[in-house]
């Protein structure tokens, strides 16, 4: 049975010991997943691993991708491990370290080679330590600060460029719609407030004209 557990792995980085604090997810050998290569813990090649959110979205994404959309989970693989970001309560880090190309809740789809990072394993480890402090679990936002945003940010820091547009496409479209709805609502609110001013002016003008017409000057 697959379960999340807190991992405490001792690792020597730059001649000092640091206790790694990740949410480590064990690989379930009985899980039905595609056969994937063994991770290379010495390779500086960076991979973007793409997952469908579930078996239903796997079918939907197959169609959606043809028109430049989809709903995906993504993790960044480097030096044999995969890193992703998700929601966690109580101010803990949202950065998760897993076995490469496996996730207990999502369906593995494909791996995209992103290129080789110039960073050493030790430098990547230190970079992840910094990101663990920056990417806290309760700052997760489904539209603007999620696993895709993290993967894009991480890949750029690894100097391999941002993640493909089609991976981010649905999020960007949904974010655009949400943003424009908010802007439109704000504009309508402003117009409603502004509309109140001429209404008052017209009312007073009408009252003034009515008053004058009922009290005509007779010479």
From TrEMBL:
<comment type="similarity">
    <text>Belongs to the DeSI family.</text>
</comment>
<dbReference type="InterPro" id="IPR008580">
    <property type="entry name" value="PPPDE_dom"/>
</dbReference>
<dbReference type="InterPro" id="IPR042266">
    <property type="entry name" value="PPPDE_sf"/>
</dbReference>
<dbReference type="Pfam" id="PF05903">
    <property type="entry name" value="Peptidase_C97"/>
</dbReference>
<feature type="domain" description="PPPDE">
    <location>
        <begin position="44"/>
        <end position="192"/>
    </location>
</feature>
<dbReference type="GO" id="GO:0101005">
    <property type="term" value="F:deubiquitinase activity"/>
</dbReference>
<dbReference type="GO" id="GO:0006508">
    <property type="term" value="P:proteolysis"/>
</dbReference>
<protein>
    <recommendedName>
        <fullName>PPPDE domain-containing protein</fullName>
    </recommendedName>
</protein>
<keyword id="KW-0378">Hydrolase</keyword>
<dbReference type="GO" id="GO:0016579">
    <property type="term" value="P:protein deubiquitination"/>
</dbReference>
<keyword id="KW-0645">Protease</keyword>
